[in-house]
Amino acid sequence: MTAKEKEWIIRLQMIQLQSENPYLEDYYYQEYYRRIEAKMSEEELGIRGKREPPKLTTPYITKMDAYTPVVHIEGSLGQVAVSTCYSPRRAIVAVHAVQTQGPTEVTVSSGVMKLFIILLEVEEMERLRTRVLPEAEELRLRKKNSGGEFLPFLAVSKGKKLIARLLPFLKQDSAMQILCVVTCNLPTLMSRDADEALPVLYPPLRSVIATLTFSQLIAVLKDLMSSESLSTYECLTLTCQNRFGLSLLYALLSHGEKLLSSGAPLEPSIGDFEIWTDTVFQVAGQLSQCSLAEPLLLPSNLLTLFCRYLDKRTVHQLKNNLE
C-alpha cells in the first residue's frame, strides 16, 4: 500500500472515533478516568503540584464536507463506499431493501431479539409472583408459534435456548404447538444442529409431554415418525442415532406406558390403540437393529412397556442394546 492509501484508511478509522458527546457514547472510559481523577484528588488534597493522570486523547480530525463517495484501490477485489463510514444507518437500511423471499439471518436474529424482550417481561412477572401470562402477551407469543415463522428460531442456538426458557411460562395449548413443530420438523432440526444445542429443549419439552392425553400423544408420535421426504424407517433411524431425538422418543413412549398402567380412563379416538401398538413394534424393531445414540435420560418403565407387547427373547435383546 502506498502512503496515501494508508493515510486514507487511518483517516476513515479516526473519523468513527469522533464524538460530540463522549460521556454518553464512551461512558465507561470517561467514568473510569473520572474515578481515577477523584481518587487522586483525595490523595493529593492540599498538594499544589497535582499530577494529571495519563489519558488517551483522540487526535482531532476535521470532518470533510466534500468527499469522494467511492474510492478505488488498485489491486483490490472491489470498491469501498466511504459513505457508509459517515452514514452507517444508511447501509443497514439498505440490507432490508434487497432481501429475498424467505427467512434470513437478519430476520431470524431480529425475531429472536423481539421474543427475548417478551421473555424478559414474563420473567419479571414471575419475580413479582404473577404466574399467569397476560392475554396480550399470550397473543404476541402465539404469533411466533405458527409453523412457518417459528421454525427458523429453532435453527439457531440462541433461538433454542430462548424457547427452552419460554416454554415453562406458556399455556398448555401453546406449549403443545411448540412440541408439534419440533416433532414435525425433527429430521431437519437434527441435521442443522451443528452446535448440538437441541438437548437444551429436552427438559421443558419433557414437562409438556407429561401433560398430554393419549390421543394427543398418538398425534405427536405420528408427526415424529412421518416426513414428506423420508419414510417411517428413515425417520426412526435418524431419530435413534441422535441424542435429542432418541431422548424425545423415549419420553413419548414412557408417558404412553404411564397412561396405560395408571388405570385412568384414556378416552382414545378411533384407531389410537392400533397406531400405538404398531408404533411400539416399529420402534422396538429399530432399537434392536441400529446403533443407538446415548440418550439424555433412559426412562425406568421403558422395558416394562416392551414386555407388554414383545416376547422375552426380543425384550432381552432390547435390554442389552439399550444398556
Top keywords for this entry?
elongated; two-stranded antiparallel ribbon; 3 domains; mainly alpha; 323 residues; 61% helix; 2 strands; single chain; 1% strand
Rg, rounded, reads 30 Å
Question: Structural class, from helix and strand content?
Answer: mainly alpha
User: Which sequence of SSEs, written as H and E, runs from N to C?
Assistant: HHHEEHHHHHHHHHHHHHHH
Q: Could you tell me the mean pLDDT?
A: 76
Shape: elongated
Count of β-strands: 2
| Poorly predicted runs | 87-101, 144-148
Distance between the termini: 64 Å
Q: Looking across the biggest beta sheet, what order are the strands in? A: 1-2
Helix content: 55-70%
Largest sheet: 2 strands, antiparallel
Number of helices: 18
- The percent range for strand residues is under 5%
Number of domain units? 3
GO molecular function: RNA binding
Protein name: PAT1 homolog 2
GO cellular component, one term: P-body
Structure at a glance:
By secondary structure, this protein is mainly α. The protein has helices spanning 3-15, 22-25, 27-43, 83-86, 88-97, 105-127, 135-144, 147-150, 157-166, 172-184, 186-191, 202-209, 214-224, 232-240, 243-262, 272-287, 302-309, 312-322; strands at residues 70-71, 80-81. It has three domains: 3-97, no CATH class; 105-185, no CATH class; 212-323, no CATH class.
Would you spell out the secondary-structure blueprint of this structure?
Elements: H1 3-15, H2 22-25, H3 27-43, E1 70-71, E2 80-81, H4 83-86, H5 88-97, H6 105-127, H7 135-144, H8 147-150, H9 157-166, H10 172-184, H11 186-191, H12 202-209, H13 214-224, H14 232-240, H15 243-262, H16 272-287, H17 302-309, H18 312-322
Antiparallel strand pairs: 1-2
Helix pairs in contact: 6-9, 10-13, 12-15, 13-15, 13-16, 14-16
